[in-house]
Amino acid sequence: MGKVIYVTGGARSGKSTYGEKIIFSSGKKRIYMATSIAFDDEMKSRVEKHKVQRGEDWITIESYKNLKSKLIEKSLGDEIILLDCLTNMVSNNMILEENINWDEVEQFKVDEVENKIKNELLEFLEYIEKSDHTLVVVSNELGMGLVPPYALGRYFRDICGRMNQIVAEKSQEAYFVISGIPMKIK
């Protein structure tokens, strides 16, 4: 039976570092599922810092979609997996996979995009639950700040919030990280 551990917090809260700590303490073979795309120098620098922080003893999967099939391609069976991060997965699926004017989008299209992301996530989590894997999901908590002043930001916040709820519900453990300090919430 697979296990899901959810780690959330604000930007630069230490959530990825805490997720990696969970992974390192497991003693299992490690898989890193990177959902971000380094479009600019700032993101390239962040990716490099994460690589150095993690070390080299990881299987890396770079993808924000088709997570189940990508994992099956690389997995040997009983690994511990770090998905970092769910927030990037959502944004890439919203922006890169869709050609939408988010300022003038109809609600049915927003629902369609969200359902596509939700189905991808549920399929992946159901696979994990039936496997021998442990999955650590890192995600930003976006609901504690200001309401974004533009439509895309509000849709993104709302969809991320609902995806975070799904992972939290399916998790056996959940942590909220503030200033590098993890608090167990489940």
Automatic annotation (TrEMBL):
Gene Ontology terms: biological process: cobalamin biosynthetic process
Keyword Transferase: yes
Catalytic activity: adenosylcob(III)inamide + GTP = adenosylcob(III)inamide phosphate + GDP + H(+); adenosylcob(III)inamide phosphate + GTP + H(+) = adenosylcob(III)inamide-GDP + diphosphate; adenosylcob(III)inamide + ATP = adenosylcob(III)inamide phosphate + ADP + H(+)
Keyword check for Nucleus: no
Pfam families in alphabetical order: CobU
GO molecular function, one term: adenosylcobinamide kinase activity
Family designation: Belongs to the CobU/CobP family.
Reported function: Catalyzes ATP-dependent phosphorylation of adenosylcobinamide and addition of GMP to adenosylcobinamide phosphate.
Protein's name according to its UniProt entry: Adenosylcobinamide kinase
